Amino acid sequence: MAADLPAPNFDLAATLNSGQAFHWEDLGEEGFAGCIGEQPVGLRQNGERIVVRPAGAREIARRYLRLDEDHGAVLAGFPKGDAVLAEAVAYCPGLRILRQPLWECLATFLTSSMKQVAHIRQISLRCRGELGRSRRLGSLALGAFPPPAAVASAGEKRLREFGLGYRAGFVHRAAVRLAGGEVRLEEGEALDDAELLEFLLSFDGVGEKIANCVRLFAYGRLSAFPVDVWIERVLRERYFGGAEIGRKDLLEFVGRHFGDYGGYAQQYLFHHARTSRGNSRSRP
To answer: Looking at the domain that runs over 102-217, which CATH code has it been given?
Structure first.
């Protein structure tokens, strides 16, 4: 059985393929399949509605896809007169920010540094297939992302076999901290934005870019603005005419110019820059 969700001005394919999550399987006309946490889910766009399988996953999908937010308010909150951002929004107006499980998002972005999308996806699927629980959606076998205890038990050497390289140590140490109860990612929910940033930076291997990805894609802090080489290039070329400007000045501009919905602005700019140039690389 399936259920559906109203999804006005929403683009499922662009959202799932925009460098936020890396495990969704493209089933062609049947849509996409993957796990949201432990729940296997099928998602298919039908005009301005999203068809969800099984029907019991309807509310899980609504939350994950952020279909419970006022997207018009997001767009209205963008800086007025910003032609660069307006061009990016017009390129893909139905793009959304996902609301991902905390640990899955942190672990995935810890693996993403200097990796291409295909490689990040390969690592994610192998972690799910070998360390996570198998879930079924009809005839499809899907892997849930392994919990910290499973990753901690696997050990750094096993993670290196998945292609993580030196990042295996970062992922393993984070898993050990969480599995041992030293810290809980849920603690970050009650922190303000600055405190949450410091909390995430306490994990080995997490710099400001990764921390801001997790703040945005997992904790839903929509002002978080990850700056990678794609975004830095866009800012320098489109907002400063290619002039030399320090990274500190760029970050100050980002906070001042894009405001409360900077994370959404960043995602539109990133998706436009990456896909309109026909390049499939991820956030380096």
So the answer is: 1.10.340.30
